[in-house]
């Protein structure tokens, strides 16, 4: 399995690279997560599963509003 940590924040990306350097299968991507060709996207959603703000809203707009029902 390959895990891609994605950030548009340079300090966060650098921190991930520092702490994940020895982790096999983990890579850091700088840029838009929606530009990646992947099988799954994990959201740091709130505990209620509402996807109407922040990155969740971006996912809902991209994948469709029914994504929060899955």
Summarize the structure.
The chain is 30% helix and 14% strand. The chain is elongated, with a radius of gyration of 13 Å. With 70 residues, the chain is α+β, with helices and mostly antiparallel strands.
Which range does the strand content fall in? Answer: 5-15%
Low-confidence stretches: none
Helix content: 25-40%
Q: What is the tally of beta strands?
A: 2
The rounded Rg comes to 13 Å
Separate helix tally? 2
N-to-C terminal Cα separation, in Å? 23 Å
- Main β-sheet: number of strands, strand sense, barrel status? 2 strands, parallel
Query: How do the helices and strands follow one another from N- to C-terminus?
Result: EHEH
How many independent structural domains?
2
Please identify the structural class as seen in this structure: alpha+beta
Question: Topology of this structure?
Answer:
Elements: E1 3-7, H1 10-20, E2 26-30, H2 54-63
Parallel strand pairs: 1-2
Account of the protein in words:
- This protein is an alpha+beta fold.
- The chain folds into 2 domains: 1-39, no CATH class; 45-70, no CATH class.
- The protein has helices at residues 10-20, 54-63, and strands spanning 3-7, 26-30.
- The model has no long low-confidence stretch (mean pLDDT 90).
- This is RNase III inhibitor.
- InterPro entries: Macro_dom-like.
């Amino acid at each position: 399995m390959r895990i891609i940590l994605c950030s548009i924040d340079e300090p966060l990306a650098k921190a991930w690279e520092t702490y994940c350097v020895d982790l096999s299968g983990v890579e850091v991507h700088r840029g838009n997560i929606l530009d990646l060709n992947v099988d799954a996207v994990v959201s740091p959603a709130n505990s209620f599963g509402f996807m109407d703000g922040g990155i969740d809203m971006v996912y809902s707009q991209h994948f469709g509003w029914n994504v929060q029902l899955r």
